[in-house]
Design goal:
globular, alpha/beta, 17 helices, respiratory chain, two-stranded antiparallel sheet, 5-stranded parallel β-sheet
């Protein structure tokens, strides 16, 4: 029947195929073929086209005339986020899922990555030379909550830096999919940063001004990204999460005065009442009970049955980022992601002067500049540190 419609449309108008078929899934949902996720059982998927070498040859306005984007797409060209509470098992689940569908796996962004610059130089090593008000506060230090209160307040700066870096990592995931056609499974996505903003605000660890600015940055940057096709939420009660934290045996988590049962319950509640309903507007959402985890094969069958392409009649926003019928829209996004400076410039915003914990105080800036910004490993790009390399002939 679909073939008859195609032929009839083509005979009426030379461009009728383009006019009719994009809307066929809505007009005749039972007569069109939908591409679902397809398990490769851990084997490499067969691809019609070789991946574009985007790391060596960034896609640009010139290459768009010779290489289109969607020709590499297949059933598994999807972005999947695996979300859940602390220590619930996101890493193992996401890795296994990526292996099952031959997708790229991107682990959760680690806060330590926010402090590494240059050639693996850790800015936290400079803390001993800095006043408490500008020291770098990582998650471990914050959870232990033993340092000077002024240092612990700097965790807001860490949250802001983590979001920026996680945003860039999500941009890399999109770039990978658009250039290779290979889907991506991410352990915790950039969208769930707001969950922890809300929780930290409720437990009094984030000021109203900092909370407002962090959400301002989120709202004005995340709108530029295409949303995931699927969000998988790993659901577990607080007692299960507590047992997993104990089993993981990170002392700074087990004995943390921050990670209380109230904190864990707030994370769970915020996910279920705010994050998931919001993501459900644009993506498919699947909940997995980690206490009574279903058989893996049954879980994969459930995933393969899900339609991650068709936009429902009554949900105009679902999958809308991926619904364009114009190849230029996909090419344009691919080009934008290749321009790293352009992606990073989305964070060029006014400083939050009303939230001093998010910026370096003016009284401390001279010493911060001298110790941190003027440090050769921070000041120079990798390979351009004159203390380590001959940069006479470098441009």
């Amino acid at each position: 029947m679909a073939l008859i419609i195609t032929r009839a449309a083509s005979s009426v108008h030379p461009h009728a195929r383009q006019l009719v078929l994009p809307h066929a899934s809505r007009l005749l949902p039972g007569l069109t073929q939908v591409a679902h996720l397809t398990s490769t059982h851990g084997e490499p998927a067969e691809r019609k086209y070789a991946p574009w070498p985007y790391k060596k040859r960034p896609y640009n306005e010139f290459w768009q005339f010779f290489d289109h984007t969607r020709k590499r797409f297949d059933d598994n060209s999807k972005i999947i986020l695996v979300e859940g509470n602390l220590a619930v098992g996101k890493s193992a689940f996401a890795q296994k899922l990526a292996h099952e569908f031959d997708m790229a796996y991107i682990p959760d962004f680690k806060d330590t990555e926010a402090f590494i610059t240059g050639e693996n130089f850790d800015k936290r090593s400079l803390n001993e030379q800095l006043p408490a008000r500008v020291k770098f506060c990582d998650i471990k230090t914050f959870y232990e909550h033993k340092e000077h209160p002024l240092m612990l307040k700097n965790f807001g700066r860490t949250l802001l830096t983590m979001y920026m870096q996680h945003f860039l990592k999500y941009a890399q995931a999109l770039e990978h999919l658009l250039n290779t056609g290979q889907g991506v499974v991410m352990e915790r996505g950039v969208y769930s940063h707001t969950v922890f903003y809300n929780v930290l605000r409720k437990v009094g660890q984030l000021s109203p001004e900092a909370f407002r600015y962090l959400n301002f940055v989120y709202d004005n940057t995340i709108c530029e990204m295409w949303r995931p096709h699927l969000v998988i939420y790993l659901d577990a009660p607080v007692d299960y999460v507590r047992k997993q934290i104990t089993r993981r045996a990170n002392l700074w988590e087990v004995g943390s005065p921050i990670i209380t049962d109230e904190f864990l319950k707030l994370v769970e509640t915020t996910y279920k009442e705010k994050y998931l309903p919001q993501m459900r507007k644009y993506s498919d959402v699947m909940t997995v009970d980690m206490v009574d985890l279903p058989d893996w094969d049954m879980l994969i069958e459930d995933l393969e049955k899900r339609d991650l392409d068709t936009q429902p009649f009554d949900e105009d926003d679902k999958f809308k980022d991926w619904q364009s019928e114009f190849e230029d829209d996909f090419n344009r996004m691919r080009m934008d992601l290749a321009k790293k400076w352009q992606v990073e410039n989305r964070f060029s915003m006014a400083l939050p002067y009303d939230a001093p914990e998010l910026i370096v105080h003016i009284d401390d800036y001279p010493i911060y500049k001298k110790i941190v910004e003027e440090h050769p490993e921070v000041k120079y790009r990798p390979g351009y540190n004159p203390d380590k390399y001959n940069v006479m002939l470098k441009w």
